[in-house]
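yo

u said u wanted the structure for the complex thing, so here. seqs first:
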Amino acid sequence: MIERTPLLNLATYTVMVLGALMVFVPLWLVYVGATLTVREINTPELHFLTGSHLIENLQAAWARGHLGGRLFNSLIMSLGVAFGKVAMSAITAFGLVYFRFPGRTLAFWLIFITLMLPLEVRIVPTYAVAANALWPFQSILDATGLSDLIKAASGLQIALEWNLLNSYTGLILPLIATATGTFLYRQFFLTVPDELLEAARMDGAGPFRFLVEFLMPLSRANMAALFTIMFLYAWNQYLWPLLATPDRAGFGTTAVVELKLLAPTVSTNGGGTPDWNVAMAGCLIVMLPPLLLVAFMQRYFVRGLIATEK
Amino acid sequence: MEKRATFAMGWLGMAFILPQILLVFIFFYWPTGAAMFWAFTLERPWGGGNEWVGFDNFRQVFADRAYWGSIIRSLMFAASTATLSMAFGLLLAVACDRGLKGYQAFRTVFVWPYAVVAPAAALAFRFIFAPEAGIFSALVKQNPEFWNPAQNGYHAMTMIIICYSWKYAAYCFIFFLAALQAIPRSVIEASALDGASVLRRVFDIQLPLITPTFFFMLVISITDSFQDSFGIVDVMTDGGPGKATELLVYKIYFDGFRGLDYSGAAAQSIVLMLIMMVLTFFQFRYIERRVHYS
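structre next:
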């Protein structure tokens, strides 16, 4: 719209520039911090100009935080969650929308109620499940008396156990067990015209063919959006990997969890000043992958956020 | 909404939804059920199963002053982060929505904080606010009392609120901008023809039209502040000094995994679940109905 509002334009730009500064200044301070030596950074003044020790600090952070292995863990976990989520959401929504079977409405509600409660609020029992993923089935067998029956009949004591701690499966599965993407796909499938299925069927396409060759190509944008969102969601996880990877020497943990150990708190090292320069260098390394992803996938990222929350 | 055209093989549909039903059962319903079971029972000290104790665990939790402290802190945290992040998010969204030259670049920048990993942001702000090296260090040198988040609870709380709001304002910005851009252009052009100035249009047309988004964001901000704050608290303050930043989820984690009080942690989880469910229900039922424009 063409209007002459010079004063208001100035005010608008001022707001936007101030906003951009609020975003940039903390990031800049982190970058500057990562370029100084310990001695330089621990002087009581604000450092606004870069030093010359960036590479050394990055190397120190990489070695001290075992970041090679940790980043690899983060990557596998995030890819697993993103791919798993996209695949499972698509087939579940397909089953719910394109088929009629008894209990369909019940299944729909069972899945969508999971949107209400995030992992954080049921964290303690989820940990117990991850320690033995077959615990639910063992309990059911015990409670129904089936275990006793089998023991009496065959002399075998049933003890189901499948420990998911310190494994990629354990990191990934609980994060997939929600309805976020399923809802997105369901909404999308409902907007696909019925005529498409009729035409496909007339051409002799079965359910698998219809899903893979018709629906999947049509939902490419949704897929990219969901993938971006889930990748970030998994990369940002903190509480779950912290609990699910107790074996730090063997399996290790994710890069985000490791970050805390670069600047220990009162509870972990009894206070003292952390090596801020190395901590900030580690911060930069861990921050980078999601920032790059968002920079390249901004369109899908914004679209996915809005679609999955509503 | 239902499809008219479907496939005939119902069993295949069941097979398609089976994986998710299994996962949801193992990692959602079973843990939720276990939390309820633990909340109403107490483990016998020398094994031999759990003893039914009714509402005793809840009574104990609610009699604990530390628990009320963490509820009040969580509410304070939710209120201040929601206010700060929504105010900044809305202001920047309104500014960007004017579509002045070069606004796309600003839009890109404003989304960034959301992509910064929460614990990394927490570490960054811990450094920025560190008394020995950060922005206040010069002032702290003259007066050590001026800023000391390791000793002063209010300082620590301020620090986590600023860090969380910095990140979350970007999230609010994304939603507010999307809502503003969804307003039909014709409505705004019509009012411009009627002589309404830019500011007038913002206050009388654009803001009233996005009230549903506003209330949606309010509820989401509160529920998110309960769950997403854990990483920031753990990295920045460890819940300290002296429990001054111990929020609800942090207390559940602490009592459950450090104190090994599963029943107490489960009772707290149930209370938090109820709060979240009431808020979500409120959002679906009440807000959507009351604030509705067509």
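The longest strand of chain B covers residues 41-43. The two ends of chain B are 20 Å apart (CA to CA).
cya
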